Amino acid sequence: MIDSHKRPSLGLSVAANRLSEREVASWHCNGFLVLNEVLTTEDVALLRQAMDACGLTHEIEKATNQVMHLDLTTLHPAFLALARDQRILGHVVPLIGPDIAIEHTKLSAQPHGPGGGVRWHQDLAFYPHTNSDVLAVMVMLDDATLENGCMHMIPGSHRLGYLDHAGEDGRFSGACRDHGAWHSHPSQVAITPRAGGISIHHGHT
Ligand SMILES: O=C(O)CCC(=O)C(=O)O
């Protein structure tokens, strides 16, 4: 997750633009992008080795619910290198500019079989900012498929601004209030990059 003001800059040289005009236009229209072959098979293998070294693979194998680990960049140098990778940043700079900071990093994994699942939400509801030029880059270590629980997005939902995430008791629930309506929304799109690919979504998508 990356934003452009709150945290110290990554101190990076400006990455070369890796997006076409059409992809940038699609971002502004839909609020997300799916890009394949950003990392190589070898890169993915190295990231998997880093997960093994940190005990994350073992944790995921025995999990019956969603696994989420914050501060990934502090766990292993390979994850920090990934956050600074020019191939990733070259896809981000054309969307929010070159002054980029990490808001947070996270490993997210679905369990094998039933269980887990993330409810309809906007990321920015979890960590509001005055600057809404915030986006998430999801780097896939497996092919994301319908069968293994890929994310879904509603094109253009980022243009609705912040949606209500309060539950019946008025407190933050972690999911959009009209959850059922989003769940059956006819425009939803399955986000299915292959391993080594990325998806990018706006904090309000
Ligand atoms: O892991 C997923 O499927 C979704 C993760 C997500 O929505 C999030 O981290 O904001």
Quick overview:
The chain is α+β, with helices and mostly antiparallel strands. The protein has helices spanning 21-30, 41-53, 56-61, 77-83, 86-96, 179-183; strands at residues 2-3, 32-35, 67-70, 101-102, 106-109, 135-139, 152-153, 189-190, 198-202.
Describe the structure.
There is one protein chain. Helices cover 25% and strands 15% of the residues. The protein is α+β, with helices and mostly antiparallel strands and 205 residues long. It has one domain (2-202): Sandwich (Jelly Rolls). The strands form four sheets. It has a three-stranded antiparallel beta sheet. Strands 1-4 form a two-stranded antiparallel ribbon. The longest helix has 13 residues, at 41-53. The model is unreliable at 1-6 (pLDDT under 50). It binds 2-oxoglutaric acid. Residues 106, 108, 118, 123, 151 line the site of 2-oxoglutaric acid.
Write the layout of secondary structure elements.
Layout: E1 2-3, H1 21-30, E2 32-35, H2 41-53, H3 56-61, E3 67-70, H4 77-83, H5 86-96, E4 101-102, E5 106-109, E6 135-139, E7 152-153, H6 179-183, E8 189-190, E9 198-202
This protein binds 2-oxoglutaric acid.
Q: Kindly, what is the distance between the CA atoms of the first and last residues, rounded to a whole number of angstroms?
A: 13 Å
Find the count of extended strands (DSSP E, 2+ residues).
Answer: 9
What best-fitting shape do the alpha-carbon axes yield?
Answer: globular
Number of helices: 6
SSE string, helices as H and strands as E: EHEHHEHHEEEEHEE
CATH architecture: Sandwich
Ligands, ions, cofactors: 2-oxoglutaric acid
Strand content: 5-15%
User: Taking all residues together, what is the mean pLDDT?
Assistant: 91
* Main sheet properties: 3 strands, antiparallel
CATH topology grouping: Jelly Rolls
- Which range best describes the helical content: under 10%, 10-25%, 25-40%, 40-55%, 55-70% or over 70%? 25-40%
